[in-house]
Amino acid sequence: MRFSNQRILVFSVLLLVLELPTLTAAGQTTSAPPDSGAAPDLKSTAVARGLSFGATAATVGAGIWRINPSSRRPGLILIGSGLLFGPATGLIYAEAPDRALRGIGIRAGIGAGSALMTIGSALIVESSEGSWAALGVLAAGVLAGTGLLLAHGLYNTFRGTARAVEAHNESARETARNASSSVFVGPWASPRVGTPGVQVRVSF
What we know:
By secondary structure, the chain is mainly alpha-helical. The protein has helices at about 1-30, 45-65, 75-85, 90-95, 95-130, 130-180, and strands at about 180-190, 195-204. Strand 1 (about 180-190) and strand 2 (about 195-204) form a beta hairpin. Helix 2 packs antiparallel against helix 6 and helix 5 runs antiparallel to helix 6 (about 130-180). The longest helix is centred in the C-terminal third of the chain and has 50 residues, at about 130-180. Residues about 20-35 have low confidence and may be disordered.
């Protein structure tokens, strides 16, 4: 029963991380009605950064709190999930799923590569130096891999989300400019002699 409760907790936190940007976007932004001439639907850099940082910090913090001598696995899963998925929430809010998936892929590669290199190095050291040296290599590899994940997560949180928001807002402004302009082409007749023709009206 205790293991089931832990799995429910892990699943709930991951669901919150993935759904948070969608819920926030619904509450923070409003789409302009068609042909209303209203301002474009812009995103906030502060909100995007806050989502990425908050989701990462909350999930990693929950994982650290769950770690105890008798059961480390749920806590480690939460920490890894926070570092992997948390920074992507701001990018999803900024409607940049391609950037979000690319960031997740890079962090997954960093984690997998660090783990393989660390385990391989530890096995080599253990065969020549002993188990204590191997433990030191494992600890160093874990710290280095976590540091790289954290560094990339921070880059996505602050720099990546800012770029995504800028790109989204520029696209929204361009769309609004195009929607606000119109061209009318219709028949026309000269008021003096009645000669038929074509008239073109352009409005902005």
